[in-house]
Amino acid sequence: MPTTAPHALADVTASDSTLRRFLHGLPGVDAVGLEARAASLGTRSIKTTAKAYAIDLAISMVDLTTLEGADTPGKVRALGAKAVHPDPTDRTTPATAAVCVYPDMVAVAKEAVAGSSVKVASVATAFPAGRAALDVKLADVRDAVTAGADEIDMVIDRGAFLAGNYGKVYEEIVAVKEASGAARLKVIFETGELSTYDNIRRASWLGMLAGADFIKTSTGKVAVNATPANTLLMLEAVRDFRAQTGVQVGVKPAGGIRTSKDAIKFLVLVNETAGADWLDNHWFRFGASSLLNDLLMQRQKLATGRYSGPDYVTVD
Predict the structure, then answer these.
(1) d(CA 209, CA 161)
(2) Phi–psi pair at 254, nearest 5 degrees
(3) pLDDT digits (tens, 9 = 90+) for 248-299
(4) Which end of the chain is more exposed for a tag (fewer CB within 10 A), N or C?
């Protein structure tokens, strides 16, 4: 198999058998302990000044997303404008991290955010199912990169993973990483379909060994998406991976995070698990477009003492 694993773990990916042995040799996940720790960290309270900082940080970490069959250039331009200036009445509001669109809308999104810090991310590899031949997936990626995508969000073949065909999943990620060129690669596991925490841990290490720049929970298209527990597990994985290899990998929970309170809980998870090095949008993102409106309302409340109401923020 091709090897992109850091030198410290290069032998792990030498063959299907060594990769399987490594992944199945990872410590089993104590589900009760994991969920209890995630719940405990979620009860932490923060002071008003820290809350204001956390809200701005969370805004800067949002990947503002539209992934619908009815997407139009006008909708994507509006999304880009919102990403650059989330609150047009207050230019101190930070921009979001990125806008995320289908490959055919990348050029429109690039134009909409030109001159700003906002990145353009594109889903690819037959999103969201990932059910296509590898050459089709790679063509999807190359189309997005050619159009100017700064980031690629790929989905793994969950069927292959659940069948234990780890080598196939690994090789696809390696190939997509190569096709992505300079674009950063986020690898989506669709944790709601992986069934067990042990599988989520294995998928996290498999993605990182194959060269993922980010590991991402979900597409947002299934019933179970990001949870505090599965995100905590992935944060532990990136922390341990850096300890072994010196390579830092980002984490992106996606789907189901809707309120400022939820976002702050996730930031606490980041700080207490992976550490302050991940409290930056280069290393942590929220895939939750509806979250932005609540963050903006809470920000306005802290500034003015009252809620402006949802009609005072733009609708996604």
Answers:
(1) 15
(2) -140, 135
(3) 999 999 998 999 999 999 999 999 999 999 999 999 999 988 899 999 999 9
(4) C
d(CA 172, CA 281): 26
* Active-site choice (216, 262, 265, 294): 216
The secondary element (H helix, E strand) that includes residue 119 is: strand 119-124
**Measured distance CA(289)–CA(313) in Å, rounded:** 13
The verdict on whether 104 is a catalytic residue reads no
Distance separating alpha carbons of residues 196 and 1, to the nearest angstrom: 26
- Collapsing DSSP states into helix, strand and coil, what is residue 120? strand
Return the pLDDT at 307: 66
User: Active site includes 216?
Assistant: yes
H or E stretch covering 198: helix 197-209
Cβ neighbours of residue 145 closer than 8 Å, sequence gap 6 or more: 152, 179, 180, 181, 183
Mean pLDDT along residues 24-32: 97
State both tokens at 190.
């669709």
Q: Annotated catalytic, 153? A: yes
CA–CA separation, 202 and 175 (whole Å): 19
Q: What is the model's pTM?
A: 0.93
Which one from 119, 168, 252, 265 is the annotated catalytic residue? 252
